[in-house]
Structure formats: structure tokens, C-alpha cells
Amino acid sequence: MLIKVIKKQTIFLLKQKEASLTFILLLAVVLGNYITNVLTFRGTDVSQMYQPMKLLALSLNKVYFSANIQLLIVMIYPILVAVPAGFSYTKEQQTKEEVYMIYRLGKNRYLQSKLWASFFTTTIVFTVPFMLEILMNMLSFPMNAIRDLSNLSIYNTDYATMVHNYIGSAIYIASPGLYAILATLFFGVVSGILGTLPVAISFVLTVKYRTLLILPTFVLLNATTYLNILDRNRSSLSWYKYLLLFDDTPKNIIVPLMGVGIIIITIFGFYLYGRNKDKW
Fold first, then answer.
1. With the CA atoms of 236, 241, 246 and 248 taken in that order, what torsion angle do they form, in degrees rounded to the nearest 10?
2. Per-residue confidence at 40, pLDDT binned at 50, 70, 90?
């Protein structure tokens, strides 16, 4: 029963203007990046061609050539990640649909389905456009191209160090395509978790203006960048160094895992509070 409700709510949320507009915007970013790559590298000999996965919109390796798309993604992502599903519970509160849904499903099942539907909706919206770009790059560019946009030789020790700094570098060495797919799935899943946070917060707080629900993810993600600037050890803390592909700076994988774990625990805590709010 719960799975059926989650499926219906996910389909409903995907049809809403917030999810549709976010999907269209991301698709436009992907198509813009793809067309730019095609126009720039058409006719390039395979020996001079860059590895196609490093040309992706999510690829930080692309900043060695042009950083326009990546800067755009870094700027809009903290806002955009809350848009597909973040306002869904507040909307139903304001339209009184919440009362009807609780009557039909029970409060516990309703809140659970709302969280899961928000997660799946955001994950789909932030995964599909970038998966399409991977497919288009695989079909349009030679996958046996090996050059890096830093223009370092693959036999250079600095290049080897850069690749070693990729999260899951062994997968990249074995198959750049598989690496890009798995990294994009990770990006989508973490986006789904972040997109669920505003929904969980709205279980606890009554928000008059829906756009205020953008603030938690905006502040949280940008705080990692500010902390990275203040960190004297210059360790990688910025969210985009872990979520985007092919960042070649040293990292500590515990940092993102702890961050995601804390967010999940927070969401669960808000869910428990919201479920029992009327009983206290």
C-alpha cells in the first residue's frame, strides 16, 4: 500500500510545474554544453581528442578549458535542488489537501510517502538530464580518446596524482563511462536527499512563504564553501568537489559521508516530530 502511494505521489510531483521547470532548465544546461562540445571538437583526430566523459556538464575537469557551465551549476544548484519537491507539503497544507490525505492514509503513512516521493522526484529530475548527456557523448565522441583537459600527459606523475584524487579513481581507470554513470547516480541520490530536507522541515515549521524553504539547502551548501575558504589546512570541504565529477584536489571521503548521514538523521528527526506533533 505504501509503495503504491509513493509511486502515485512521485508521478504527481513530477508533473508539477516546479519539477518540470527544473528538469527543463537542467536539460537546457546539458544541451548547451553538448552543442558547445560538438561545435568545438568536431573533426578532431582521436589522438588529439579529450576523454568524452570529462566534457560533461558535471565535469570539473572541463574548467581547464572553459568554466562557464560548471560555474553556472555551482551557482544555481543550492537553490535549484529544493525546487522540484521542497514545497509539496506546504502547498498541501495551504490548500487543505493535507487533511484529506491524512484521513485517507493516516498521518504516519502520509508523511512517509511524502518524504519518499520527494526523494524520488528530486533524484529523477537531477539524474535523467545528465544521464542523457553521458549517452549523447558516448554516441558522438570516441570513447577511446584519453586526453585530459589539463593537457598533462597520461604518463606524467602529476596527472597520476590528479586521477588518484578522484573519488573511486579505480573505477575511472577501469572504465571512464562506468565511472561517469555511477558518479552521476551519486549526484542524483544526494540531490534527492537534499531535496527532501525542506519537506521534512515543513513538517515541523509552518511556513507562510514557500520560497523560504529554499534557504536551508542554500545556506547548508554555501556554508561548506565558506568553511573551505576559512580552513587553514586547505582541505576540500566545498560540496561541489564531492558531488561534481573529476575534481582533482585531495579529499577526505569521510566528510561527505558524515554530511549526508547528518542530513538523513535530521530528516528522520523532523519526521518523528511531525508525526507526533499533535500528540504533545
1. -20
2. very high
